[in-house]
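Lab channel / #folding
Pinned by the channel admin:
"Please post every new chain as: sequence first, then the structure tokens as a reply. Keep commentary short and put observations after the output so the thread stays searchable."

First post following the new format, from NK:
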Amino acid sequence: MNWQTLIDEPAVIAAAVLALGVVVGYLVGRLNKELLSASGVPDAVEGTPFERTAQSIGTSSVEIVARLSSWFIYGIAVLTAIHIAQLLDTEAFWIRVVEFIPQVFIAVLVLIFGFIVADKAELAVSEYLRGVKLPEVSIIPKVVKYSVLYVAFLIALGQIGVYVAPLLILLAVYAVGIVIVGAVVFKDFLISSAAGIYLLLNQPYGIGDQIRIGDQSGIVQEVDLFVTKIESDSEEYIIPNRKVFEDELVRVRD
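Reply from TO:
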């Protein structure tokens, strides 16, 4: 057997493809890791539940994404090598598998970034509403988080060809339900925010004024969209703005 005959052997070509796939997959993984690190992704995902879970098993979000890109190349190389070596007479099956792998890879990436975005959205909303002293507000960040996750889940399923029309209908019902339940549960929250807009625009009292709202009296320390904070004898009262209209408001003049 001469060299030309040996090179033309399917098994040899398959082995060469497999070896090339391993090298290319490794290089792609390293390149993706460097690019993600340079773009600031580690800082963006720091402290998220997904990152903490990854670190608990000795890896990181960036490392997982980089490995996924490598595994994607490895999988293509293995399937191509099997097809070239003619180990299985299932050409149509392998074609479908090769078409399916990129879809799975993208779906996994969508889920990973969905978790990251959901965590960041929850933190951002929590930070924005941190000064609101209404008990109903604590549920809003969770609603935002799981809404983002649900959308990411839908996109991932659609990417791998799952029929998602019923889930889209469920999403629409969920959105309508959120609006209806929110209107009922957050009625006081909405009233307080509307009252806050009025107070901020008309300013019937300001910081430093001495006022009495219902049974609480003191000097105004802060007025925001949702609450008015007054202080008296080292005690701070946090009063929802709706109370300004429900109870008697008295501005005490010197």
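NK: The chain has two domains: 3-162, 163-253.
TO: also worth noting, DSSP finds ten helices and five strands in the chain.
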